[in-house]
């Protein structure tokens, strides 16, 4: 059980899922550390409600001290599946922000920097990592995003750290960019669709970023999610609050 004295590091805190993870953690009165490449961006976004830690998972030497005192890591980092300006083509043949750099090497670096007594490493991966040759995932993986996500998963599973791997389908809702965290807390911490989860990588559909963030945070409170991987999608409109204890009990 997470206590409000333990520090939770969110990597990718200023991204679409990461912002919502931070909001959800703060709503539970938990201590949040935001790992960011750009301090100014995180400071303006989170209004001094979180501890800002500068570091870049693509560069292991920047992570030497960022996990000191950290009990939990939630990794929401990522980049686009297809080449875009976000890949940073300063080096045409080795983009600095490609899936290989972020989702494979970057996650490996973060795993290596994690303290030995870490209580949980939560990783946002993707549906299709085990079905890369099937449609539509063979198209999604044209530039290696699923290859990279799987390498990140494998590094986590081999680390002997307690982990939870979450595999959303095509992301919907957002991404959000909020410079008023209170507004984000009020408006964006509950999805509108029912949630379905299943062990492994068999589900297809779409997943609200809101519910991915909820799953990341709620998983910390249930031992049934330790050393588990699962897919998550949205189904019909929900008529009652999501019962995470019941969902996680199926894993």
SSE layout and pairing:
Blueprint lengths: L6 E5 L4 H12 L3 E6 L2 H8 L4 E4 L15 E6 L23 H15 L6 E5 L12 H4 L4 H13 L5 E6 L1 E3 L8 H7 L5 E7 L6 E3 H10 L9 E10 L6 H6 L2
Parallel strand pairs: 1-2, 1-4, 2-3, 4-5, 5-6, 6-10, 7-9
Antiparallel strand pairs: 8-10
Helix pairs in contact: 1-6, 1-7, 3-5
Kindly describe this structure.
The chain has helices at residues 16-27, 39-46, 99-113, 137-140, 145-157, 181-187, 209-218, 244-249, and strands spanning 7-11, 31-36, 51-54, 70-75, 120-124, 163-168, 170-172, 193-199, 206-208, 228-237. With 251 residues, the protein is of the alpha/beta class. It has one domain: Rossmann fold, CATH 3.40.50.720. Helix 1 crosses helix 6. The longest helix has 15 residues, at 99-113. The chain starts with 6 loop residues before the first strand and ends with a helix.
Largest pleated sheet: 8 strands, mixed
Radius of gyration: 17 Å
How do the helices and strands follow one another from N- to C-terminus?
EHEHEEHEHHEEHEEHEH
Instruction: Give the helix/strand class.
Output: alpha/beta
Question: So what's the CATH class?
Answer: Alpha Beta
Q: Could you say which overall geometry the principal axes of the C-alpha atoms support? A: globular
Find the CATH superfamily. Answer: NAD(P)-binding Rossmann-like Domain
Mean pLDDT: 90
Number of strands: 10
The helix content is 25-40%
Arrangement of strands in the largest sheet: 3-2-1-4-5-6-10-8
Number of helices: 8
- C-alpha termini separation: 18 Å
């Amino acid at each position: 059980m997470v206590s409000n004295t333990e520090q939770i590091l969110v990597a990718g805190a200023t991204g679409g899922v990461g912002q919502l993870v931070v909001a959800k953690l703060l709503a539970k009165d938990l201590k949040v550390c935001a790992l960011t490449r750009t301090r100014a961006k995180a400071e303006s976004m989170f209004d001094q409600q979180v501890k800002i830690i500068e570091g870049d998972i693509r560069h292991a030497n920047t992570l030497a001290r960022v996990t000191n005192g950290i009990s939990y890591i939630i990794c929401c980092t990522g980049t686009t599946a297809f080449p875009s300006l976000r890949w940073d083509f300063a080096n045409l043949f080795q983009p600095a922000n490609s899936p290989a750099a972020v989702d494979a090497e970057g996650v490996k670096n973060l795993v290596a920097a994690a303290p030995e007594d870490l209580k949980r490493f939560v990783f946002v991966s993707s549906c299709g990592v085990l079905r890369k040759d099937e449609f539509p995932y063979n198209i999604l993986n044209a530039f290696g995003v699923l290859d990279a996500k799987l390498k990140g998963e494998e590094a986590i599973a081999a680390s002997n750290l307690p982990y939870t791997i979450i595999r959303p389908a095509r992301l919907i809702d957002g991404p959000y960019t909020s410079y008023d965290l209170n507004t984000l807390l009020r408006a964006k911490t509950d999805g509108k669709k029912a949630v379905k989860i299943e062990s492994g990588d068999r589900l297809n559909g779409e997943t609200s970023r809101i519910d991915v963030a909820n799953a990341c945070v709620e998983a910390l409170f249930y031992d049934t999610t330790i050393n588990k991987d699962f897919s998550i999608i949205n189904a019909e409109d929900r008529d009652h609050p999501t019962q995470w204890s019941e969902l996680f009990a199926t894993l």
